[in-house]
C-alpha cells in the first residue's frame, strides 16, 4: 500500500479481554516497529522486527504483550488480559532497513487508539 | 539508561519571531539525535537528524555534546509550523530503539 496501515483505528474493550492490533507496513519494508503512546507522553518503544524475527523485544512491558510477524510483512500485536493502564495509542512504523531508518526515519502509521474500560 | 527531556510542554510564538524548542539528553555514548513532528491530523514524521546537519523547512538543530543538548531552532516562525515536536535519541547504528521525549506543542500566533 501507499503507507503503513493500522487496523482498527479505534478499539474499546473490557478489562480482562484479549485484543489484537494489526499493522500492514509498506511493501518491501523489512524493518517494523511497535510503539505505545500514552496521553501526554512521547512514543515508547515496544518491539522491533527485522524480517520475521523479533530483533529487540525489550520494550514489551510484561508477558501479557506479544507480537508476531510470521511472513515478514503484516504484524499483529496481541494483548492478553487487558488492563485499564494499557489504554494508549499503539503506533506501528516501518523502514526499508535499519540504515534507511537512520537516514530517513521511520514511516509511521496513524495508530490504533485502545481504550480499556 | 538513556533519557530525553523536553522541558516545555507548550510554547507559543508570534509569527515572524524566532523559535527554539529545547531538547536535552542523557546518554554516555555517542547517540544519534532526531526531531520528529506531528502536524494536526497527520502522522508522526521525521523532521531532521543531527548526522545530516541539514536545514528542513527553515529548522536547524545542532548537537552540543558538552551540554548534551539538541535544540531545534528557526529564525522566523510561520503559521504552518504549529505542530507537536518530539526529540528522539538512538544509541547508535545497530540499536533500533528510539527513545522519545514527551514532546512540545508549538503554536504560532498570527
Distance between the termini of chain A: 33 Å
Average pLDDT reading of chain A = 94
Helix- and strand-based class of chain B? mainly beta
- The count of helical stretches of chain A stands at 1
Q: Summarize the largest interface: chains and residue counts.
A: A-B, 30 and 26 residues
How far apart, in Å, are the first and last alpha carbons of chain B?
41 Å
Query: Helices and strands of chain B, in N-to-C order?
Result: EEEEEEEEEEE
Give the overall shape of chain B, derived from the CA principal axes: globular
**Helix-strand category of chain A:** mainly beta
Contiguous low-pLDDT stretches of chain A (5 residues minimum) are none
Oligomer: heterodimer
Largest sheet of chain B: 6 strands, mixed
Proportion of beta-strand residues of chain A: over 45%
Kindly state the percentage of residues in helix of chain A.
under 10%
Written overview of the protein:
The complex is a heterodimer of chains A (117) and B (110). Chain A has 117 residues and is mainly β. Helix content of chain A is 6%, strand content 47%. Chain A is globular, with a radius of gyration of 13 Å. The mean pLDDT of chain A is 94. Chain B is globular and about 40 Å long. Chain B starts with a strand and ends with a strand. The model of chain B has no long low-confidence stretch (mean pLDDT 92). Classes of the chains: A mainly beta (117), B mainly beta (110). The interface between A and B is medium-sized, with 30 and 26 residues.
Topology:
The complex is a heterodimer of chains A (117) and B (110).
Chain A: E1 5-7, E2 10-13, E3 19-24, E4 31-37, E5 44-50, E6 53-56, E7 65-68, E8 75-79, E9 88-95, H1 98-104, E10 107-108, E11 112-116
Parallel strand pairs in A: 2-11
Antiparallel strand pairs in A: 1-3, 3-8, 4-5, 4-9, 5-6, 7-8, 9-10, 9-11
Chain B: E1 3-5, E2 10-14, E3 19-21, E4 24-26, E5 32-38, E6 45-49, E7 60-61, E8 72-74, E9 83-92, E10 95-100, E11 104-109
